[in-house]
Amino acid sequence: MLGTTAPERLVVGISGASGAAYGVRALDALKDLGIESHLVISRAASLTLASELSLTPADLAERATSTYRVQDVGAAIASGSFKTMGMLIAPCSVRTMSEIATGVTSSLLTRAADVTLKERRPLVLMVRETPLHLGHLRTMTALAEMGATIAPPLPAFYAGPQTIEDMIDQSVGRALDGFGLDWHHTRRWSGLKLTADEPE
């Protein structure tokens, strides 16, 4: 049937948590995959980008298909009628996570996430916080019950990372798996290889 396929576009949010590189690499990955990226970043994220990567919001705009101001709650991505594959927030701060969980959204970033949930589209949150107290865990549980995927960016040592960039790319690739996207930088587990002198 015509008109039933979701457009190949993904909303990408970057919050102010440490780990801005995850959002940047997600934009690069989507460009590699030929997927439209619709970017919104928080005010705090602008500070983190400058501190961690010496990048500006304008630098990110060059990597994204479309960008939106965080206060522009009338933007396309604020409406469920704007069809997308879902939304990735990389990284996702506890404040951002908490706003989404309560539905009391104060910016386009959290409004777009709320829309993603209400439209039953995939929402992947690369939550950056440790250690986690009980309130954090309960908030994550509430979001998981709503349909979100909680995907903290953790190193996968089975992939044999040699650099920080390898670890970032692996985490981004696994997050994109949540949207059915297969990025070539993602290393896949193929099982342990037993040697002849090891027991079955």
Can you walk through the features of this model?
The chain has 7 helices and 6 strands; from the N terminus they run E-H-E-H-H-E-E-H-H-E-H-E-H. The chain has a 6-stranded parallel beta sheet with strand order 3-2-1-4-5-6, sandwiched between helices. Helices cover about 40% and strands about 15% of the residues. Strand 5 (about 125), helix 6 and strand 6 (about 150) form a beta-alpha-beta unit. With about 200 residues, the protein is α/β, with parallel strands linked by helices. The chain starts with 8 loop residues before the first strand and ends in a 23-residue tail after the last helix. The longest helix is centred in the first third of the chain and has 14 residues, at about 20-35.
Strand share of the residues? 5-15%
Shape descriptor reads globular
Element-level helix/strand string? EHEHHEEHHEHEH
Count the beta strands: 6
Ranges with pLDDT <50 over ≥5 residues?
none
Rg value: 17 Å
Largest sheet: 6 strands, parallel
Structural classification: alpha/beta
Percent helix range: 25-40%
